[in-house]
């Protein structure tokens, strides 16, 4: 994983005025039945010996939505607000299936201008109460979800819009104001397809929806 951009976005009052409000009524399609990427990740993370179950990586409880519904609600609010800042972004483009595995990104951005490149990018909005961190210590779930979505879409770039609710450290005390970081990464084909093999291998162990 190569980090192409990792910046703090300082919103201005004009950014709030320039937002393009989304049409929420178009996003009511039910989730497709079957095995979802999130279900396989949940198995790999929280089953006995899983990445987040045995202390190898810090993570949330497997029933996060039931345990912390207000935090989940903040995540939905952040996603919808964030999308309104980027009118060219295709929000919730719908499910994609490969090898019987279904996944849906928060957004797609075709032809994103970055330096002298035009990139097709998967967009993900994350609201978190974790301490602010850099991509080399990115949460386990974020990276593996990004790899899986890349494999489903035949892409190699993911851009995370992360809202760190508690901000970052400043000296020896918390700076409590929220911080918005935007992070663009590039995965190699070897990373993407290698992780896809792991997902396919564990597909039958996930709980279908």
Strand content: 25-35%
User: Which CATH architecture?
Assistant: Alpha-Beta Complex
Number of β-strand runs: 11
Please provide the ordered H/E string of secondary-structure elements: EHEHHHEEEEEHEEEEH
Estimated radius of gyration: 17 Å
Give, in spatial order, the strands making up the sheet with the most strands: 1-11-8-7-6-3
Q: pLDDT average, as an integer?
A: 87
Domains counted in the coordinates: how many?
Answer: 1
Q: Uncertain segments of ≥5 residues (pLDDT<50)?
A: none
CATH class: Alpha Beta
Biggest beta sheet attributes: 6 strands, mixed
- The N- to C-terminal Cα distance equals 30 Å
In CATH, the topology is named: Lambda Exonuclease, Chain A
Which class do the helix and strand fractions yield? alpha+beta
Helical stretch tally: 6
Give the overall silhouette.
Answer: globular
Helical percentage: 25-40%
Account of the 3D structure:
The protein has 209 residues and is α+β, with helices and mostly antiparallel strands. The protein has a single domain (2-17, 34-205), classed as Lambda Exonuclease, Chain A (Alpha-Beta Complex), CATH 3.90.320. It has helices spanning 13-17, 37-46, 64-67, 69-84, 140-153, 189-201, and strands spanning 2-8, 35-36, 90-91, 96-98, 101-103, 107-114, 117-128, 157-164, 169-170, 173-174, 179-186. The protein has a 6-stranded mixed beta sheet. Strands 2-5-4 form a 3-stranded mixed beta sheet. A hairpin with a 2-residue loop joins strand 4 and strand 5 (101-103). Helix 2 (37-46) packs antiparallel against helix 5 (140-153) and helix 5 (140-153) packs across helix 6 (189-201). The two termini are 30 Å apart.
């Amino acid at each position: 994983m190569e980090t192409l951009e990792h910046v703090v976005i300082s919103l201005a009052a004009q950014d709030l005025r320039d937002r393009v409000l989304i049409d929420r009524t178009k996003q009511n399609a039910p989730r497709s039945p079957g095995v979802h990427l999130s279900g396989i990740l949940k198995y790999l993370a929280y089953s006995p010996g899983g990445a987040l179950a045995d202390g190898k990586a810090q993570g949330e409880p497997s029933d996060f939505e039931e345990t912390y519904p207000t935090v989940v609600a903040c995540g939905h609010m952040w996603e919808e607000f964030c999308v309104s800042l980027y009118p060219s972004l295709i929000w919730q483009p719908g499910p994609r299936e490969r090898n019987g595995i279904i996944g849906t990104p928060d957004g797609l951005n075709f032809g994103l201008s970055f330096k002298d490149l035009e990139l097709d990018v998967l967009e993900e909005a994350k609201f978190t109460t974790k301490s602010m961190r850099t991509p080399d210590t990115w949460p386990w779930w974020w990276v593996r979800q990004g790899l899986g979505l890349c494999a489903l879409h035949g892409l190699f770039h993911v851009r995370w819009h992360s809202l760190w609710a508690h901000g970052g450290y400043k000296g020896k005390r918390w700076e409590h104001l929220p911080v918005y970081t935007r992070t663009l990464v590039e995965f190699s084909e070897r990373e993407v397809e290698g992780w896809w093999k792991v997902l396919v291998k564990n597909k039958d162990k996930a709980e279908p929806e």
